[in-house]
Amino acid sequence: MALSANLFLRQNQSLVMTPQLMQSIQLLQMTHLELTQFIAQEVEKNPLLELPSNDTEMGNERGGAEDETYPHQAADEPQDDGYDSRAEILSGDWYESGNSAGASRLSDELDANYANVFPDDGVPQRADAPELISQWKSMPGNGEGTDSYDLDDFVAGQISLRDHLAQQLPFVLPEMADRLIAQHLVDQLDEAGYLQGDAIEAADRLGASVHDVERVIVALQTLDPPGVFARNLAECLAIQLRQKDRFDPAMQALVSNLELLARRDFSTLKRLCGVDEEDLLDMLGEIRQLNPKPGAGFETGMSEAIMPDVVVRVGSDGGWVVELNPDTLPRVLVNQAYFAKVSKSGDDHAFLSECLQTANWLTRSLDQRAKTIMKVASEIVRQQDAFLMHGVDYLRPLNLKTVADAIKMHESTVSRVTSNKYMLTPRGLFELKYFFSVSISAVEGGDSHSAEAVRHKIRTLIMQESPDAVLSDDDIVDILKKGGVDLARRTVAKYREAMNIASSVQRRREKRALAKVAGF
Fold first, then answer.
1. Separation of alpha carbons 366 and 330, rounded Å
2. Which among 174, 178, 265, 284 counts the fewest CB atoms within 10 Å?
3. SS3 annotation, 448-483
4. How high is the pLDDT of residue 444?
5. Stretch 467-490: mean pLDDT
6. Sheet with 428-431: strands ordered across
7. pLDDT-based confidence at 304, cuts 50/70/90?
8. Cα–Cα distance between 16 and 24 in angstroms, integer?
9. Residue 451 CA neighbour count, 13 Å, CB half
């Protein structure tokens, strides 16, 4: 068989993932903070990108600006500098050499203040009490055009747990060797204030005796906050009870059997502690007042406020109005005038062309991102109309495919859009993922139910039960079946444990004990 070279023409389709396409996909799942940081980095790298200022936004609202550029004021536009009115003042007999009030009259006539001719040389006055500035206009720092006070100057610095403990060490450990051991133990604390290290290991590492390390630990357990340097929860509670002088034998037995307390085994606890039911409930009340994580109050993590990406409100016609939150929509401007001016010189034309292409891509990507979020949110509102009107009991089962087919997009796109995005509704603030839940079949072919709605029904049934009629998981299954929900017993138990709800035996013990104390 002879070999020969042939030329064939073939046509096929393929998806090429360019870097810009991959970046556009990543923009969909970015949060507001991440997107703001990304745009700030792009503005810093690209000389053609600009962030709109307040003046630019006001100009766009009033008269409109050039396409994606700043509005410019005409050079020959007349300006009112007040010269005519000032000339009228100067034309009058305003100077009186014999009048002692001439200087004050001059100041009033010319609207000038000669108290400080060179204001830059003086030290700016700061507000003594910034919380009263809005009430007292004469307070220093409240004048317009002056530098406002820095609020950080009035905020107390946050102190960490280690710094707080280091300030107390000299009072309980006068010896320098003990302080070195204590400093090593301080470094072994976790965020909750528990000691993670071992006394034997610390003694081997520091070259000290185990007795000295244990003695230092006992001294450190007397520091503030109470319960710090404990090795476990029982020891943490015991330390706090000792400082309150409430660690009697009965309380010691209760703290030593916390696993029985978790199971609500009150009969065994009464026998071990040697107390009656009323005293046991009083002891449980004291346990609840203790802090199981004494070091948690010194965490320096910043809490971020959640800003909704979509706002849903009731329209005038009774329907729902879906709007994008303008505060979470970053805007960038492409300075076309600067590109046209610089590109005329011919220098770095290739660089500027690439910057212009990148800037146009970013504006289109942000616009496409906003439109995609709007489409997904509008479809979610249409699907969950009953939830917005009547509450969580009417939450419909919904999946990504249903929304994707309705708006003619891929499921992965809908998943990226709903990731870390929030919707503000008349019923509260919800993550977009909240509206997607699995479907639970109904009895005899009825409408399916949402898993979140079923969990809400289970929680409501348990909250409404009485001490003499505590519902078991089988009872909850029967009640749900009467309501049209076909659910297995193991699924009820799984939902109950996920909501941190105790079993029927434990709830019955606790509610009966509380009812006896209350006198019911």
1. 8
2. 174
3. CEEHHHHHHHHHHHHHCCECCECCCHHHHHHHHHHC
4. 63
5. 86
6. 320-324, 310-314, 422-425, 428-431
7. low
8. 14
9. 16
How many CA atoms are closer than 13 Å to the CA of 100, on its beta-carbon side? 0
Taking residues 446-450, report their average pLDDT: 73
3-class SS of residue 172:
helix
Which residues have C-beta within 8 Å of that of residue 169, sequence separation ≥ 6? 179, 182, 183
d(CA 120, CA 118): 6
Q: 3-state DSSP call for residue 71?
A: coil
Position 377 confidence tier, pLDDT thresholds 50, 70, 90: very high
> What Cα–Cα distance (Å) separates residue 131 from each residue in 124, 134, 136, 142?
19, 7, 10, 11
Q: What is the mean pLDDT of residues 434-457?
A: 79
Distance CA 185, CA 180 (A): 9
Q: 3-state SS string over 240-293?
A: HHHHCCCCCHHHHHHHCCHHHHHCCCHHHHHHHHCCCHHHHHHHHHHHHCCCCC
Q: Is the four-CA dihedral 221, 224, 227, 229 of positive or negative sign?
A: negative
Give pLDDT tens digits for 259-293. 888 888 888 888 898 888 888 888 888 888 899 99
Residue 490 tokens read as: 């193991």
Residue type, 235: E
**Hey, what CATH class is 161-298 in?**
mainly alpha
**What is the four-CA torsion angle of 397, 398, 399, 403, rounded to 10 degrees?**
160
Domain 440-518, what fold? Arc Repressor Mutant, subunit A (1.10.10)
- Rounded to the nearest 5°, which phi and psi values hold at 192? -85, -5
Mean pLDDT of the chain: 78
Strands 310-314 and 320-324: antiparallel
Per the listing, tokens 């992965």 go with 412
- The answer to whether residue 146 scores a pLDDT higher than 80 is no
pTM: 0.60
Cβ-based burial of 336 (10 A; exposed 0-12, middle 13-18, buried ≥19) = middle
Distance of CA 482 to the CA centre of its chain: 41
142 near 133, Cβ under 8 Å?
A: yes
* Span 487-500, average pLDDT: 87
440 pLDDT more than 90: no
Q: What is the DSSP letter of 425?
A: E
Residue 424, pLDDT > 90, answer yes
Looking at residue 60, its amino acid is N
What is the token pair recorded at 119? 């204001």
Alpha helices in 304-420 (DSSP H): 336-343, 349-383, 385-390, 400-407, 411-417
pLDDT for the residue numbered 230: 92
In this predicted structure, which of 151-165, 343-357, 395-409 has the lowest mean pLDDT? 151-165
SS3 state of residue 237: helix
Q: Which helix (H) or strand (E) holds 166?
A: helix 161-166
Residues of the chain within CATH 1.10.10.1330 domain(s) are: 161-298
